[in-house]
């Protein structure tokens, strides 16, 4: 057996890593020096141009310096009239803050060097860093030479912004450390992993999670604690003390509880009938169980409005109801249940298929009733899958945005509130806080599920699994389950049939005459949207499969 970690490997790894670090430091330090040189050249050009253009007369200096400070955002200019060491210096600045800065610093050693340089008709570029207006600046002293080119009438003090250089330097440091970290990790995997390919795959997954999950979540949390660029708890105080937001939180949780419960029950019935009964047409049942997955979320909401809305086909045209409303908790629960029960169905189908049917057959052979076999063998073994399906639907219900936006009415949920905070009120901190608040019910449900599952052991010990599945229900129960599924499937088909019918109706609720105008208008006005949708789907599908 070849040892993965030896002193020779560790020593060579350390030496190579050190050499790479030195090479990266030299490379990025060269880039930093080049950028600093470019910035200094730009500063010199700006200083020379403004020094030549500055008026030498006292009467014109005040208007000129005010215009210059308005025009150039990366530099603040102070006009000083008089010769240092000979005259009483007169400070001309467009703001009191610039004047105060000059007065507070004029007795420093750095300013005295600047005075001496301009006295000898030379520019002085300070090597020190100053802070003005909350930003880092560098100073440049430039003399104002008169027409004789031998004497000065005053000088200019430039406060050149150093923020760009500092930001660029920080960015280079981040890139340098990032490049070194990537090299070290890749080199470490290639040297010390038995299966480097699997190591690279794991590394890629960590990078994807870090970029697309961890970093956005970190930025969202950080944003909630900032106000005007400073640390503040005002966002969370506003969220946690607002009755509107707390009501929306409870609205999301209540909607999630109802949707997850109904969806899990319906999904379990679908999965149970397909995997544990001998009914015919299982392929059709599977298709109906997956049909809502392929449709956009808002299409079911639109269909529900067309059927049960204030001017709906069933509520107004057939039943003549006036006070009935589909908007609110009831309509949202219905449309989310129809749209999300396939999640539970897919999860529970895999769970029930994985349960070895020989256990159930053994129970039936020992004169156990079908109900006792189901309640003591099948369902207990499926509990982890049931809880997982419930949690998945609950999470999707909390995150749903399109359906509450269309069917919510006066019913408040956090997803819509967060959207309004960002787009309507331009309060990114509040929107991020509400989004994070949505994580609390999900995390709580996840911890409860893990605690419940960990209390018991769900293990089957069998020989060779049987391919034959038991019929675990009596004929009346089978007919009851199939009848319930038939009603639900009719409801699903009705929803999708309404969408198709609505495409060929002149004016739903008023004029039900046949027309092709809707299709023509959709293809004309929505052609770009259709192409963009297909393009986005084609690009995202391969990455989602990976």
**Helix fraction?**
55-70%
Radius of gyration: 36 Å
Distance between the termini: 34 Å
Global outline: elongated
- Low-pLDDT stretches are none
**What's the CATH architecture of the largest domain?**
Orthogonal Bundle
Mean pLDDT rating: 86
Q: Determine the CATH topology of the largest domain.
A: MetI-like fold
User: Given the helix and strand composition, which structural class is it?
Assistant: alpha+beta
β-strand number? 10
SS element count, helices? 21
Q: Supply the number of structural domains.
A: 3
CATH evolutionary superfamily of the largest domain: MetI-like
What is the highest CATH level, the class of the largest domain?
Answer: Mainly Alpha
Summarize the main sheet.
Answer: 6 strands, antiparallel
DSSP strand (E) fraction?
5-15%
Layout of secondary structure:
Layout: H1 7-53, H2 58-71, E1 75-81, E2 90-92, H3 96-105, H4 109-119, E3 124-125, E4 130-132, E5 135-145, E6 152-161, H5 163-192, H6 196-224, E7 226-227, E8 230-231, H7 234-241, H8 243-276, H9 282-290, H10 297-308, H11 313-318, H12 329-354, H13 357-365, H14 370-399, H15 402-407, H16 414-424, H17 428-437, H18 439-454, H19 475-503, E9 505-507, E10 511-514, H20 517-525, H21 527-545
Antiparallel strand pairs: 1-2, 1-6, 3-5, 4-5, 5-6, 7-8, 9-10
Helix pairs in contact: 1-5, 5-6, 6-17, 7-17, 8-9, 8-12, 8-14, 8-19, 10-12, 10-19, 12-14, 13-14, 14-18, 16-17, 20-21
């Amino acid at each position: 057996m070849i040892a993965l970690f030896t002193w020779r490997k560790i020593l060579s790894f350390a030496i190579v890593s050190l050499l790479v670090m030195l090479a990266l430091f030299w490379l990025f330090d060269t880039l930093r020096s080049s950028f600093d040189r470019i910035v200094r050249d730009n500063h010199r050009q700006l200083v020379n141009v403004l020094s030549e253009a500055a008026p030498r007369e006292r009467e014109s200096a005040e208007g000129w310096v005010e215009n210059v400070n308005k025009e150039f955002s990366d530099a603040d200019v102070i006009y000083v009239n008089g010769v240092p060491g000979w005259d009483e210096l007169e400070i001309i600045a467009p703001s009191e803050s610039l004047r105060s800065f000059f007065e507070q610093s004029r007795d420093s050693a750095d300013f005295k060097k600047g005075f001496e340089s301009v006295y000898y008709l030379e520019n002085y570029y300070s090597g020190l860093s100053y802070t003005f207006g909350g930003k880092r600046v560098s100073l440049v002293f430039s003399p104002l030479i008169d027409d004789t080119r031998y004497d000065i009438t005053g000088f200019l003090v430039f406060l050149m912004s150093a923020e760009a250089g500092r930001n660029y330097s920080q960015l280079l440091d981040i890139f340098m450390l990032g490049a070194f970290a990537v090299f070290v990790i890749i080199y470490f995997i290639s040297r010390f992993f038995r299966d480097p390919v699997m190591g690279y795959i794991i590394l890629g997954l960590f990078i994807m999670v870090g970029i697309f999950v961890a970093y956005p979540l970190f930025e969202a949390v950080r944003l909630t604690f900032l106000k005007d660029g400073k640390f503040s708890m005002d966002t969370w105080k506003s969220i946690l003390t607002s009755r509107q937001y707390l009501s929306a939180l409870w609205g999301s949780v209540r909607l999630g509880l109802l949707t997850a419960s109904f969806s899990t029950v319906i999904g379990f019935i679908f999965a149970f009938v397909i995997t544990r009964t001998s009914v015919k047409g299982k392929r059709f049942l599977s298709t109906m169980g997956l049909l809502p997955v392929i449709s956009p979320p808002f299409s079911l909401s639109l269909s529900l409005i067309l059927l049960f809305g204030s001017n709906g086909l069933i509520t107004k045209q057939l039943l003549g109801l006036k006070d009935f409303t589909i908007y609110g908790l009831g309509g949202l629960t219905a449309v989310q249940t129809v749209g999300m029960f396939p999640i539970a169905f897919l999860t529970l189908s895999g769970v029930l298929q994985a349960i070895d049917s020989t256990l159930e057959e053994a129970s039936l052979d020992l004169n156990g009733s079908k109900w006792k076999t189901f309640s003591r063998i099948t369902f207990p073994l499926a509990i982890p899958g049931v809880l997982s399906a419930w949690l998945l639907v609950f999470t999707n219900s909390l995150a749903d945005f399109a359906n509450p936006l269309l069917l919510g009415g006066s019913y408040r949920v956090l997803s819509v509130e967060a959207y309004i905070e960002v787009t309507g009120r331009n309060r990114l901190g509040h929107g991020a806080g509400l989004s994070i608040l949505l994580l609390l019910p999900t995390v709580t449900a996840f911890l409860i599920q893990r605690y419940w599952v960990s209390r018991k052991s769900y293990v089957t010990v069998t020989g060779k699994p049987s391919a034959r599945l038991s019929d675990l229900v009596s004929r009346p129960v089978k007919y009851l389950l199939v009848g319930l599924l038939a009603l639900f499937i009719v409801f699903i088909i009705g929803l999708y049939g309404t969408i198709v019918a609505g495409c060929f109706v002149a004016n739903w609720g008023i004029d039900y005459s046949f027309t092709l105008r809707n299709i023509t208008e959709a293809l004309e006005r929505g052609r770009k949207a259709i192409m963009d949708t297909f393009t986005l789907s084609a690009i995202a599908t391969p990455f989602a499969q990976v």
